[in-house]
Write a structure and sequence with these properties.
By secondary structure, this protein is of the alpha+beta class. 31% of the residues lie in helices and 23% in strands. It has helices at residues 6-13, 43-48, 82-91, 93-100; strands at residues 36-39, 55-58, 62-69, 74-81. It is rod-shaped and about 60 Å long.
């Protein structure tokens, strides 16, 4: 049975979404880093007064990089955090991408 991707259909017909923008969250392909919700109170603030601060979303430093793998003779275009780029520089592209499950 074939499943239907309603999210992709919504993104295609949604007039509020800018052209060429993805609705999916960008995460690092190697370290799987994504956004986190931050904010709140310190215990000192909680003990002395009530002043809501609200939540904020913090984004990782994600870069679009083209990685060349000499063992395969191919290039891959990936979204990587700076931590993932350092891992590739340290361990090599082929080993890191294989461990992340991006190549067989």
């Amino acid at each position: 049975m074939k499943t239907f991707n309603y999210i992709a259909l919504w993104a295609f017909f949604n007039p509020c979404l800018p052209a060429g923008r993805s609705i999916f969250m960008k995460t690092c392909a190697i370290s799987k880093k994504g956004t986190i919700i931050a904010g709140g109170y310190s215990n000192r603030t909680r003990a002395t007064k009530y002043n809501p601060t609200g939540k904020t979303r913090k984004y990782p430093n994600i870069q679009k990089k083209k990685i060349y793998v000499p063992e395969l003779g191919k290039s891959f275009s990936l979204y990587l955090s700076t931590d993932g780029i350092k891992t590739i520089n340290k361990n090599g592209a082929y080993v890191t991408l294989k461990k992340a499950g991006l190549i067989k």
